[in-house]
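Students often ask why we bother encoding 3D structure as a string. The short answer is that it lets us treat folding as translation between two languages. Here is a chain of 451 residues written in the first language.
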Amino acid sequence: MTAPFETEIRTLMDLARENGLGDVEVYAKRDIALTLRAHNGELESFQRSDSVGLGVRVLLGERVGYAYTENLAPAALQRVLNEASSNAELVEAQPGAALAADAPVPEAPELFNPALDAVPLPEKIAQVKHLETITRTADPRVKAVPGCSYADGQSVVRIASTRGLDRFYRSNMVYALVYPIVSEGEQNKTCYEMAIGRDFAKLDMAALSQAAVQGALRRLGAQEMASGRYPVIFTPKAMTELLSAFSSVFSAKAAQEGKSLLAGKLGQRVSSLMVSLVDDPLRVDGIATRPFDDEGVPSRRLALIEMGDFKTFLHNTQTARQAGVESTGHASRGGYKGTVDIAPSNLFFESGGATAVQLVDGPGPVVVIDDLQGLHAGTNPISGDFSLASQGHLYEDGQYRHPVHNFTVAGNFVDLLEAVEGVGDDLRFFPHGSYIGSPSMRVKELAIAGA
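And here it is in the second language, the structure alphabet:
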């Protein structure tokens, strides 16, 4: 495709040279998104958005100034460059601050599916209405479907700098989500499920609906459980929520600011030998897949934890220079309005070989947690501590007993990783800001506060 933002990039590079600015970076992005919601067999809401803008970063030595504009006229481009330059003059130096150097970009999976872009709007509307209807009528115990949505979007990103770096990519995606409320007696339960990908034709609404309804129905009849310390199994959904809440501990920026409990532990054993944690921005089926990060640094697969050993933090250019290493390609801007930070892409715990039956096997009770609540208030990424309202299922002597609810699970994230004694073969991904994946994981024991 023709390079996007060609006129704007060329204008800003020319202006930078005319103004004697040696270190200028332009981050340009356009996002187009569609969201549909259905309720009671009808289309409840329709939202379409189209945002476009440029973020400019100017470095005066190690002083960094940012500015952005959504007006792409030449006069506006001059203003945004002036503003970023003025902002750089007003701030303190940031040790290690620098623009990324140009480097070859690896071949990445195809991220844009033209067939998805060509799906007619009436077909999308019909699908989300169909999903809501088959979910609402799936079982007499389904009382409502408060959440049923379809969304798709596409984006194009281009990064260029006075250091010679200039590259872009285009991507699109589609997802559907549904969560029903089921009732029996005085109990109401829900369960959400989602499907996500780049192929509209592969959205299986029947399978999605069935998974959500069956997941909710399986929670009916939940009982309270006694407090104590129990072996705990986190399902992929629950484990991705926990990993997302603590993903910042792997940020080099957090470590350098004294906000990561992993600071000073490079090369040390930080988890069970069964645990390996990977970030792979080139993963074929990853929704966060990209050829380069938000500074233009080429992407590569990265092992953070390898069989228990902590190998590396996630770095951008600045944190890498401070640490005397190369950037890992994990700079993140959060759009053209954002400043450079650090974030994972497709972050996941690697699969193990244990089946669901093998994970629950053994003497005594084991709690399977499939839902965590209060993740923002109940987790402390600096200390690693967590205390979270939960629900799940109780097994005893390898046999299923009943669903459980109204209990809290508490522990420490690193202690949890050290206590992993089983890893499932059921790796799944969920969008939690980044694209987070995990198989089921069995932990030797955690504190449960119940009845």
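Translate back mentally: The first helix runs from residue 6 to 18. Keep this in mind for the problem set.
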